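Subject: sequence -> structure tokens, single chain

Hey, anyone have a minute? Need the predicted structure for the following. Not urgent.
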Amino acid sequence: MDKVEFVKAIKEVVESSSVENTIENLSEPPGRSPDKRLLKQSNWFKSLPPSEQALVQSLIEDAVKESVFGMLCVLDGVRPIASSDDSSMNIQLTIGDSLINDTESECLHDIYQNV
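Reply:
Had a minute. Here:
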């Protein structure tokens, strides 16, 4: 798996499924006894006209995309997760023998913006 394949997999497995699951949970809260907070959110969402439900879905999509982008920035080493004093933090993502987030080629977060 190369960088592009990895990012495409993340888009499918994380981004798309997160948006779909969130909308499904708003439309039909899962479980026999759903969390009260989710029930309240669901009731509110279902009370909205379709055009406003579409706007909520758009906001959810944007939030998920920002989260995935941020996580890829962390993997690329361009967004620190430790204090700025600690420059020794280095996350290496390998699949098999391949280093997916090497700093010598295009960053994962840049690829994500283009696939």
